[in-house]
Every structure is written in structure tokens, then in C-alpha cells.
Design brief:
With about 300 residues, the protein is mainly α. The chain has one domain. Helices cover about 75% and strands about 0% of the residues. The protein contains nine helices and no strands. Helix 2 packs antiparallel against helix 7, helix 3 packs parallel to helix 7 and helix 6 packs antiparallel against helix 9.
Length: about 300
Amino acid sequence: MSTPASHYTPPKSSVMRERQDEDEALRLLIAQRRLHRRAKRWLGLRLIGMAVIALGAPVVSVIRPDLAVFAGAVAGSWLFLERTIFLYAQTSTLAKAAAIQEQFDFFVYDMPGSVDRSVLPSLEEIVRIADAHNKLRDAAEREKVVGWYSIEDSSSGVVAVALCQRSNASYADHLLKTTAKLWTVLTSMWFVALVVASILAELSLLQFIAGVFLPILPAGLDIVQYVLGIWQAARDRKDLADSIQARVEGAGGAIDGRDLMVWQERLYALRRSTVQVPDFVYGFRRRVNEFAMHSAARWLADKAKRSGQ
């Protein structure tokens, strides 16, 4: 763990390809997948609350003005819980998942860790999460984590690690963009529906502002902030993927161990602060995204060989 970053030399590609399917690696992958799922449950609870408040508060305020104060109190209480307890539970769980995924990468790449991660769960906790019923291989098949990275045996170890790191960033970029587009469409449709409903209900401008716009403003701002965060997260990952790709293609000189360590640290920071993608989006796009990821990795591996990497 004390090896200087500049002295890091990856193992052969074939070794890394085999290491990613060893029990230790699979255990880490399963644990991080299940922790991500827990974090998404907290996110789902937050989003459902925001949607209920955004849709319910204006209806209550318009139909039952005498309940407007009660609706406002409920909305305020929910926003307090959502931005404190629920958000903390989500982010702390996500941080654990990111630390475990980093340990998976370190194991596969045989890479020295530069910093101890205080959020990394204990070995006992990882075991309880991943294979409490002593059926690790069955769980790995169900979670579809076997052969996690597309690694070409003909690539050098340095190129193989760089391509795995790029795949991480690029895969997340495409998922986040899909999620951002979906939320942008839904948010726009939701706002248009509120305006149309207000017109049909023959609300005055003052009634619309006081009874519809102001009650949904806090939840609406949360939703807008969430969508903007997704777009920013996607751009951050694309920037990293593009910079790695340029180096693999020969720009800026040969890749060395220091480059790989810097990119790995950047990946960890992005994973820890990522905006999560709902499972239905992940499942819907998984086959297409994985095909594209594997194809791009093979393509870039060939370009790297031609550039002398």
C-alpha cells in the first residue's frame, strides 16, 4: 500500500481478466451492487415525497383553502426529513459502495491504495452483504457481475487499466444522460399539466401564484437541482473518458503508473458524489450500453497497439 504511484506497474492483461472473476473480486462487486440498491431506495423515497408534495400541495390549496396551512406544514416537514435524514442515509450508503468498488479495482489492477478510506465497510460487513448464505457464485450470476470489465489479453497492462477506467466513466456518462433526458421530459410535462389544469379551473394569476406555484416551489427546486446535477455528473464523466481516450490514442505521450493512479483517484471522487440512476433506466439500457462499452474497448485496444502503447 506504500508503493509510490509513479512506480506502479500493472500486471498482464490476462492476469487482470482472471482476477476480476476470483471470489474476492466477486464478493466486492456484489456488495457494492447491493449497497447501490439500498441507496437507490432512499433516493426513491425522496423522489416520491417530492412528487407527492409537488402534485398534492397545489390541489389541496385550491380545492380546500382551509387546509393550505396544513399542506404547507406537511410539505415543510417532509422537505426537512428529505434534506437531512433521508439524504444522509443515501449519501453514506453510496460512499460505502464507492469505497468497495475502489477496492475491487485495486484488487483487479493490483494497484496500491494511496489513502485509507474511513467509509470502507469492515470485511465482516462486506461478507454479510455479499454472501451471507454462502452462495457467492450463484449471487454473482444473478447480479450479472461475472466478467465485469472487457479486457483484451493482447493489450499491455497499462492500456488495459486505462481502458477499464475509461469504460467506467463512459458507461456512467451514457446512463446519466439517459436519466437526465427522461427527467427533463417528465418535469416539463408536469409543469405544462399544472398550467393547463389551472387554466381549465379558471384560476386567476394571483390564485395560480399563491395556490399552485408557491406551494410547489421548494419541491420543484429540488427536482430541478436533481436534474441539473445529473447533467453536470454526465459532463464530468465525459471529460474524464475523453482525456483517457486521447492518451490511449497516443496524444500527450505514453501512459504510465502515475497517470493511472490519478485517473483512479478521479474516478473514486466521481463515484462518491454521483447522482444515482434509477434501476429501471439501468436495466432498460444495460444490454445496449454494455455492447457499446465492449465494442469501444476492443476498438481502442487496437488503436493503442497501432500507436505503440
